Structures
1.
Amino acid sequence: MQYMILRRSDPRSESGRLSQAEDSQLFASLRPSKGAVRLSLRDGEATVTEGPFPDPAELIAGFAIIDVPDKAAAVDWLRAWPAGESEVELEIRASGCPGGCAQVIAESVPGHENDKRFAVLLRSSADLEAETPVPQSKLDALDAHNAVQAKAGVLLAADGLRSSSLGARVKVAKNSFTVIDGPFTEIKEMIAGFWLISVPSMQDAIAWAKRNPYPVGPHVDVEIRELFDAAATADLFTPDQQAAEQRIRAEQLEAGMRAHLTA
């Protein structure tokens, strides 16, 4: 079974790049929210709000996707998380869409040369948290759109997240490891799905997010975050550290994300 591990933001992650030890655990590390936007879609009208966003508790700093038998195994996976002086909060969420949707994973990361990578994060709602059914026709339309975007090299990955009642939060500190089972009541802090895209700029990412056929609505809220570019930050690490990070990411991609979209 696949789970997404969300590294919740805090003042340290919002101030800049995560430590190399933490970053090596993540499939995607997100830049601070000062370069992010929130997109609200209301009955065909779009409102864009630029970051930074004041409450780190509503943000994530990155995510990993792991393939383990159950939630208990996901908790055990987090016992290897590098503990620092300050507490880190991690959220475990089961992957998948209620009603079923095709997970997308591209054969290579990133997509087009010179493009940037952005995460389009679907903010949760009462209906999403309750897993209120949506028409199958909407899920089919989303799958068809995702297939086209994946073949074009724009969509690198996509999946939904199940209700927080199936998840947990883990707090890791230097001398402590605390597990809190869901459900969680802070709906505005939760993510219900994601799309990882490769486009030239934030404006292109916003335009893509506006066109995306979300199966929920008519009110949809997403947060768009640029991923760290390993090439742009390579000078932060030694060559051995860069090679180790690339190896870890390749292993995560192979072992943690096995379901590929076929068409």
2.
Amino acid sequence: MIVGGEAELLLLLHIFPDGVEELDGAFAVYADEPPIGFDVVQVDDVPDGWEDEWRSFHHGVKIGNFWVGPPWESIVIDPGRAFGTGAHPTTRLTLELLQRLEPASLLDIGCGSGVLSIAAAKLGFEPVHGIDLDDAAIESTLENARVNGVEIHAHRADALTDELPRTDVALANVQLDVVERLLPRLQCGRVITSGYLDRDRPDVEGWTAVDRAEADGWAADLLTLRP
């Protein structure tokens, strides 16, 4: 089914974890039922095997010192059914800011396919913890970590309700409202946030933005906790 309007890709991926594809200025989402509250322009049946056919439009990208891409291009990341091949601007911006930090312990919130967790481990961050609400994301993160020869401690958790590990740095490439609800719960001194447009900025008492990266209408911020 094709959803029109200006709905953001990242939000759609959270709402429709079975798949989202950009087509002719709109988004096609894979779901068993029409999405409530969306402008549905067209509904089509999809053939068996669509889970593998979508691979044809995923390609690797260069982000700072990294080349991130799927294994069918002989690179490093297989997203499976989890969000994250490294191609989305918010992933690239988060990794750009991450490379400006000295390695330390790290928590990747909403780790998806493990792109950021693996990059952090390769940069020397340790230990690296990854959490996600989706079991498929945890499975994908652990498998991609194995393929890349790095150690990631990943498990299923809700960052808004479950206890979070204490680390020096956290990554939160999620929606802005989730970022702002999450910040008071973090046990770290620095966090890189993304998942929102460049017109938006996290605004939470106690946290100060000290660096920002922008691209293609998206943004990422490095925030520090004021003493």
3.
Amino acid sequence: MLDALSATLGLHDLALFSFTVLVLNATPGVDMVFVVSRTLSGGARAGVAASMGISTGCAVHSLLAAFGLAAVLAVSPWAFAAIKWAGAAYLVWLAWGMWRAAWAPAPVVATTAVEREPTPHWRLFRQGLLTNVLNPKVALFVLAFLPQFISPEAAHKTLAFLLLGAWLVVQGTVFLLVLVAVAARLRGLGGSPRLGRWLNGLGGGLFLGLAAKLALSEAH
């Protein structure tokens, strides 16, 4: 069935496509750092919420590429720069929040004390979404990557884009959920407030470095 659908839509080398997506997912970057850090600090449910936000961001990029809107980033330096700096600023803001958590004084246990509530899952979802959507490199990658597996003679290029984009999102989501399971297992082996502070501090430093890398990136 898949072969028939591929022939109809003009798709080819789908095994290579799947392997390349796997390599992409396994390459350390903003998404991986965010999911692992949220899982280690907030548990599996926090990691799943972050993963769903990132996957939604990938879906947005795939839709933009399918309908040609992401091409604007490839030809407009102004548009690319605007999104690039917005993404870098957001990563810096996330890094600052993680450093604040790392250096915050430990809560005092008392009958009148109010324990710090964990970050709401909807907020983690939103953060994951924004870290992905505000990275123009993802949009340009999707726009450059997907056409490599679509024949120039394909009669339904938009539909082919949508199918490959959905494949990209689903495979990426599965990878992130596996990553969450592994990180949650490591978290369960032993954790402490000191470990949480260390993870937040490390995550903040990584996000700051990724923000600098994104800010210094070029469109091509």
4.
Amino acid sequence: MTGREAEPLRRRPRIWRRALFLFLLPVLLAAAGCGRMPRIIVLTDPLTAEEHLELGVAYERQGKLDLAIREYERALRKEKDFFQARVNLGNAWLAKKEYGKAEEEYRKALEVRPGDPEATNNLGWAAIFSGEGMEEAAAKMEAVLSRPENRAATLFDTLGVLRKRLGRTAAAEEAFAEAEALCLGERGCPAETLREIRDHREERDGRVPSPAAPPLVQ
């Protein structure tokens, strides 16, 4: 090989280094201008769906509903059929008085677990507060309470409020009486629950009833 033929081989490394320098120049200038190296952004989420749920519960207990909602939504992105995250998300929307959004989450929860007492109960309260869909909510509550294992004072209380809002006074009284009897029976219930049932039954001072808080984590 002659000297002339060998010359292009000697030039190639210099061309490659020049191209690499020009390619990296904007990055180097940006780093120099900021006084630090470019930030590295990590796009992965290291938490599990259950961990996001627990974090959401912690935020909700502190009254930080927006942060709780964010964590429940992250849990659902990890696991779209995560029943408890769906119910908790509905509860957070209910607390923010976003009744339509709460109802949507409870319905999605019921798609995962049809006839679930907790989701059905909370759907009933979304209907009570919004004033919409109470006929359907009452029917769902009646279906849930038709199963002996679901006969709980809080569920009968919710049914009583629904029936009362629908103008079914006698049927509402039956539901409240059953709720109170369960509280006073062998199984019993907390004093606060019994007081709520009696308040809902009488609607003392015309106040709007409040739902018994469902468990945040099962």
